[in-house]
TrEMBL record:
The keyword DNA-binding applies. The keyword Cell membrane does not apply. Belongs to the RfaH family. Keywords: DNA-binding, Transcription, Transcription antitermination, Transcription regulation. It comes from Craterilacuibacter sinensis. InterPro entries: NGN-like_dom, NGN_dom_sf, NusG-like, Transcription_antiterm_RfaH. GO terms for cellular component: cytosol. Pfam families: NusG (PF02357). One of its GO terms (molecular function) is transcription antitermination factor activity, DNA binding. This is Transcription antitermination protein RfaH. GO terms for biological process: DNA-templated transcription elongation. Interacts with both the nontemplate DNA and the RNA polymerase (RNAP). Enhances distal genes transcription elongation in a specialized subset of operons that encode extracytoplasmic components. It comes from the Bacteria.
Amino acid sequence: MPQTIVSPLAWYLVHTKPRQEAKALFNLEQQGYPCYLPLISVEKVRRGKAQVVSEPLFPRYLFIRLDSSQSGKSWAPIRSTLGVSTLVQFGGQAAKVEDELIHMLKQHEQASPCAPLFNPGEVVHIADGPFAGLEAIYQCSEAGHRSIVLLELLHKRVRMQIETARLGKIG
């Protein structure tokens, strides 16, 4: 019967300080800890222009690979690392994360980003809400699940925010 080798290394969850995921990642890696910060590409509006930026998939969290046989003994430097708030624990035990989850997240992150639902300048149909049935000109996506559109009201184009789920393609 083949023997299975059990590695003492396991993934754990680190809670970071607000908006300091990259700082925590850098400082932990400088100390020699293998870490992983899953990122997602998001379209944001900055200075009036849509830009694709990378953001943490799980804000304020990153994964760290540690020797589970050393639990607590060699982990003190982690808690005092710049950008780190604490190791996530349940009942006094550090929260382990399965290798399969990390592998799946890495595969998903490497996959090509999704094409945007609508392109800037595209005429869209408002399917729901107080402006249902009207057409608008799509401008860009906004943080979250909202979009900026130009809607013609009283012979004037008005810029407004609307939930992307309320928009539909024409034709």
